[in-house]
Known about the structure:
The structure holds 2 protein chains of 2 kinds.
Chain A: E1 3-12, H1 19-29, E2 34-36, E3 41-46, E4 49-59, H2 66-73, E5 78-88
Antiparallel strand pairs in A: 1-4, 1-5, 2-4, 3-4
Chain B: E1 7-14, H1 20-30, H2 36-49, H3 57-69, E2 79-81, E3 86-90, H4 99-104, E4 111-117, H5 124-135, E5 140-146, H6 155-172, E6 181-183, H7 207-212, E7 227-235, E8 239-245, E9 251-252, E10 256-260, E11 264-273, E12 276-278, E13 280-281, E14 286-292, E15 304-307, E16 315-325, E17 339-342, E18 345-358, E19 365-368, E20 378-385, E21 389-390, E22 402-407, E23 410-422
Parallel strand pairs in B: 1-3, 1-4, 4-5, 5-6
Antiparallel strand pairs in B: 2-3, 7-8, 7-15, 8-14, 9-13, 10-11, 10-15, 11-12, 11-14, 16-20, 16-21, 16-23, 17-18, 17-22, 18-19, 18-20, 22-23
InterPro entries (chain A): eEF-1beta-like_sf, EF1B_bsu/dsu_GNE, Transl_elong_EF1B/ribsomal_bS6, Transl_elong_EF1B_B_arc
Domain Translation elongation factor EF1B beta/delta subunit guanine nucleotide exchange (chain A): 3-89
Keywords (chain A): Elongation factor, Protein biosynthesis
Amino acid sequence: MSGVAATIKVMPADADTDLNALKEAIKAAIPASGKLNGEIIEEPIAFGLKALMVTVIVEDDEGGIEPVEDALNEIPEAESVSVINLDRI
Amino acid sequence: MAAEKPHMNLAVIGHIDHGKSTFVGRLMFETGAVPPHVIEKFKEEAKLKGKESFAFAWVMDSLKEERERGITIDIAHKRFDTEKYYFTVVDCPGHRDFVKNMITGASQADAAVLVVAAPDGVMAQTKEHIFLSKTLGINQLIVAINKMDAVKYDEARYKEVIEQVSAILKMIGFKPDEIPFIPTSAFEGDNIKENSPNTPWYKGPSIIQALNNLKEPEKPTSLPLRIPVEDAYTISGIGTVPVGRVETGIMKKGDAVCFMPSGATGEVKSIEMHHEEIPQAVPGDNIGWSVRGIGKNDVRRGDVCGPAGDKAPTVADEFTGQIVVLQHPSAITVGYTPVFHSHTAQVACMFMSIDKKLDPKTGQPKEENPAFIKAGDAAIVTFKPMKPMVLEPAKEIPQLGRFAVRDMGMTIAAGVCLSVKKKE
């Protein structure tokens, strides 16, 4: 069994979304098949908008990162969720 | 670290037991990328257990342990330098469900090393991996015919395996004549750094020389502008701001742009990256840009921003694609309508006609208009999107010409777009 580290970019619902609350919601939403790696990082995009970068580790043979993506997509304050990097560890 | 050298993402692909980890371990060892304390530990271990434990996979395992101990994954562990480039190894996840993320995501490999074990030759997974590399836009390939020690460095066997691999490469659109094939033993270190006395019949480059011979990846700035929209925001005092990553082309302040399939048009008022205004955006830039003349509801995720006029993004009424079926519980027939993921778009598309099934051995069509296709098949299929979507022929704009097919929570197939019937 080997792990896969996925870097997931979560965009807030709007420019005024409380990012700390969103971070907590992300931490709470990550299903048992995934493990949060390190801190959730704020990345400036444009015009005051910030993305949250979340690194989650899942098992390679557990069937992908989809369950994590789906769970994060359920968060009302998250506008979009995209996996931007994958790496076997 | 050698910041002046050009950087390349290198994917190492191949069947699960063909020695990928040993290969990467050996490569990092020979290029001096393994930290001295790991090598020391490695030597001790080897001494303790005798020569049979002298597997370079061990180096990779130790690095993995190191990383797992740390709080944060540090991908710097998988970097190595040659004279000309510095490389980051892209270690592709094995599970097929990650294919969707590799197609829609950002981590693109610039080149790949395909590892094929000489005793086994081409396996089902080898074909799949070569196809996926092409789908993912990797055009530069090096083929290592590995585990040559296990076939007593037999040139005849080496040539047999080359023939098998070449047939698949041809089918998928690579040119075998332009690809270096190298007999290696990652375990023994043959032809990794220098040409080995064990293969006196081989006169070509070593793996490291072949890596140096790769062409430097170019940013696709000369292609028409394409920015798949990730999200659109309304920001007070600014207006409508789409965000996304530039895939191809250049966007400058003042440009007239359009958003397809929505059809909205406007003028670029300002572009920001990392909260700083920039005069122009190039491929790879993650930007937000404000556009005069559009409202928030005129543009949405899945739209593609491009130049207004005749180079606008192509909206597909129908398209033809070459796909490989990765997994499906039964048979796929005409009428099947799964969800296609391409750039930021997700649109259901119907299998209109299954035009050809391809023979993996010759690359020739094996069957015209087959009644069905199933897992493991490669085929040419015509699709109809159920809602308007932007897709480009991969030959013209590869970044917008690949897709993953999803159904039942699985990645069913991966494909490239061959041609598009434009929606008028």
